[in-house]
Every structure is written in C-alpha cells, then in structure tokens.
Amino acid sequence: MRQDADGLSVSRADVRTLLRFLQPPLPVISLRSLVDRLERGDTLDRHLAITFDDGYRDNFEIAAPILERLSLPATFFLVSQWIGSDVVPWWDRELGVRHPWMTWDQARELRRRGFDIGAHTRTHANLGEVRGDVAREEIAGARRELERQLGEPVDLFAYPYGAKQPDDRRRTWSW
Fold it and tell me: How far apart are CA 42 and CA 167, in angstroms?
C-alpha cells in the first residue's frame, strides 16, 4: 500500500498487521451484510466491514491478496472516471506523489474473486459543493459506468469526503 505523509496510506506490513489484529476479536462481514443488518434493525455487535476508496492499483496488487489469504471480505469503491487513467487527485498532487489506478480488468478480477465493488462518483466530486444535475450525474453516471464495465448491478455507494461542508474533505462515510 502507499505510505504517504497524509496519514491516509499505510505500508503492506501495516495492512497485514491490522487485518490480522482485527480478525479474531471483531467479526469481519461484507458491507452488504452490514447494511442488511442495519436495515433489519439488528444489532451490529461490534461487526466490522472493510472498505477501500478511489481505486488505487495497490488495493488490487497488495490489499486484495492479503484479504484473500485471511479470508476477509471487502468492498472497493471506485471513482469510475479514474480507472485506467492518469488523473492525479488534489491530495496526491499536494504531496507531490502519483499513484496508479486500477485498470478495468483488475476491477473485474476483484469482482470475480468475490469482492464487492461500489461507486464513489465519476470524478470524486465533493457532493457538499455540487448540486442538482451535476450531483445526479456524478452518482448515477458512476453507477452506469461501473455496471457497464462489470456486467452486473452495482448497489453500493460511498459518499466522497463524507460531509455536507466542503471544508471537511478528508473524511469518508459509506452508505
């Protein structure tokens, strides 16, 4: 995994250590199962769902194999217009780093291997700033693009930045 000064990225060893640490004390379930429990009004009983945002290639190359070895489910939320592109998001640009994105073949392979794929907008738009048709197209357009590329329905979505206010850019909330 990426190791940046922003605190959003961790090393391969840290990912492995964290996942091994969490596994016995907290039941790790798919995000879809967690949402189902919430919708039924069931208690979460300290259940944990693992998610990754944006679609960085290291999620495919490093995180997915570790998750598989530990038999842990996870959801990968992809920014549809960034997959296979050379886009450098503002947070990487500020740090002077550039990290590659997954390809569509890698996204399809994650799905084939049993991981869930969800939408994270088309361009990582701050939905606290954009309105109306722009917001709708960011959300619905990402879903359409993912469904077309994956060949199956996509019903999970992670809200970029996770806040109504544009100044809270680094918190992500999945629903």
Answer: 34
Interatomic CA distance for residues 164 and 141, integer angstroms: 21
Tens of pLDDT, residues 30-53? 999 999 999 999 988 888 899 999
**DSSP category for residue 126:** -
Q: pLDDT, tens digit, for every residue of 103-113?
A: 999 999 999 99
Complete domains list, the chain, with CATH: 12-174 (3.20.20.370)
Three-state DSSP at 94 gives helix
> At CA 1, angle to CA 158 and CA 32, rounded to 5?
30
Name the region of 18 (left: φ>0; alpha: ψ -120 to 50; beta: rest): alpha
Q: How many Å apart are CA 146 and CA 152, to the nearest integer?
A: 8
Total number of residues shown for the chain: 175
Tokens coding 64: 């997915």
Extract the runs of DSSP E, i.e. beta strands, from 49-136: 51-54, 75-78, 116-119
Residue type, 92: D
- 74 to each of 22, 32, 59, 87, how far by Cα in Å? 13, 10, 11, 24
**Alpha-carbon span 91 to 129, nearest angstrom:** 17
